[in-house]
Write a structure and sequence with these properties.
Blueprint (H helix, E strand, L loop, with lengths): L3 H6 L12 H60 L2 H4 L23 E9 L7 E10 L4 E12 L14 E4 L3 E4 L2 E4 L1 E4 L3 E4 L1 H9 L4 E3 L19 H11 L5 E4 L2 E17 L2 E15 L3 E7 L10 E4 L3 E15 L3 E3 L3 E9 L3 E3 L3 E5 L16 E9 L1
Parallel strand pairs: 4-7, 4-17, 5-8, 5-18, 6-19, 7-9, 10-11, 11-12, 12-13, 12-14, 13-15, 14-15, 15-16, 15-17, 17-19
Antiparallel strand pairs: 1-2, 2-3, 3-20
């Protein structure tokens, strides 16, 4: 048998046996490498997908936010176009704005609606707090904005038209005979007759104007004044407002007895009303018929006129000590009792008084239910936060 040495000499190589388990170790190494690569790839994919999802969610949330912000601007625009919406504390539905999620997009391709709207509880609101929702309808992203809106009448008083600040204005005739103490401007479209002449002299001495539109040849002639008439649509508006919580709507002839500060309440009466008041302020009484007033009404602590009496027919001042208010009537103002009247008289009919007429005007008026000089009212966003 040839020796191993001889075999090597002949060029025959010796084969060595493989190390036990070497093939399994290589396979494990390959598998581990593949697992690491897979994990890295999966992690990169998940990270990329998450970042894309975060970016997508952010864009959707931003879109929803912009739709809520656009809704806020629509509310501000509504108030600025008609501040009475603010002054009369109109709800979203009353302003024709959505108060629930709309079925279709209402601002661009997005949706917004007003979830809550709360006004300053004072009679003349200074602010409104609003909660708006914005929604991106495709992916249903939703956001909320809470904002405060401020309404600012000039100098803290309602800026009623100048005719309500003048004193006494009538579309009819003003007749006065006997003693009188008038501290007010006075205008009568159909002329005035005042006796004695000393009353006229005293008015002029106090630098109050006295004018009429019936006789162009006279030096006190002034072109006819457009005395505002109370229209049916005005009654409709007050009628609607009076049916809100906290206000009062009364059908048929009424007897009312009130005292003190009424906190800006509106009383609407379908027909005539007899009012017995004690130190009344902060109220508006509207009657489609005649208003008969007994008692007293006062200015507020800042000496502003806060009461208004608005009648579709006459206003009769019966037994009173002092009545402070705006007296606006489609008929005449008739004074039967003696006492002092303070504020403003705007009348469509004749004004007649035989003696003892005492009247002084006051231009500081705070009452949201009277006509407003809307151009001077400012509405602005005080601040907002994304919820």
């Amino acid at each position: 048998m040839p020796s191993a040495f001889n075999q090597m000499k002949r060029g025959t190589r010796l084969r060595t046996a493989p190390v036990p388990g070497s093939r399994g170790a290589a396979l494990v190494g390959v598998l581990l490498t593949m697992l690491v690569i897979t994990l890295l790839g999966t992690t990169a994919f998940i990270t990329s997908t998450t970042e894309l999802q975060i970016g997508s969610n952010y864009r959707q949330s931003l879109t929803a936010f912009y739709s809520a912000e656009a809704g806020l601007q629509q509310v501000v625009s509504a108030y600025r176009s008609d501040p009475r919406l603010f002054l009369w504390k109109k709800s979203a539905a009353e302003m024709n704005l959505p108060d629930a999620e709309p079925a279709a997009a209402n601002v661009g391709r997005q949706k917004y609606w007003i979830k809550a709207l709360r006004y300053d509880p004072q009679p003349f609101p200074a602010y409104a707090e609003i909660l708006l929702c914005g929604k991106e309808p495709i992916h249903q992203a939703l956001t909320h904005i809470r904002a405060t809106l401020y309404g600012q009448p000039p100098a803290g008083s309602s800026d009623v038209p100048a005719i309500f600040k003048q004193g006494i204005v009538t579309a009819g005739e003003f007749q006065l005979s006997g003693g009188a103490d008038i501290r007010s401007n006075l205008h009568a479209n159909r002329g005035y007759r005042i006796e004695p002449a000393s009353v006229v002299d005293e008015l002029k001495a106090r630098n109050f104007s006295l004018s009429q539109s019936s006789d162009p040849s006279r030096t006190d002639y002034r072109a006819e004044v457009a005395v505002p008439r109370i229209l049916e649509r005005d009654f409709q508006e007050w009628r609607s407002l009076s049916q809100r919580p906290g206000q009062r709507y009364l059908a048929g002839p009424q007897q009312l007895s009130l005292s003190g500060d009424q906190g800006g309440r509106l009383f609407f009466i379908e027909g005539d009303v007899t009012l017995q008041g004690v130190d009344l302020r902060g109220l508006t009484v509207v009657a489609t018929g005649t208003i008969i007033i007994n008692g007293s009404a006062s200015p507020d602590q800042a000496q502003r006129v806060t009461a208004a009496f608005i009648a579709g027919r006459d206003i009769i001042l019966n037994q009173f000590q002092e009545l402070c208010g705006v007296f606006w009537t489609n008929g005449s103002l008739i004074q039967r009792g003696s006492g002092q009247v303070v504020g403003s008289i705007v009348s469509q009919g004749d004004l007649a008084r035989s003696s003892g007429f005492q009247f002084s005007s006051r231009a500081e008026i705070l009452n949201p239910y009277l006509p407003q000089n809307l151009s001077s009212f400012v509405v602005k966003v005080g601040g907002w936060i994304q919820m």
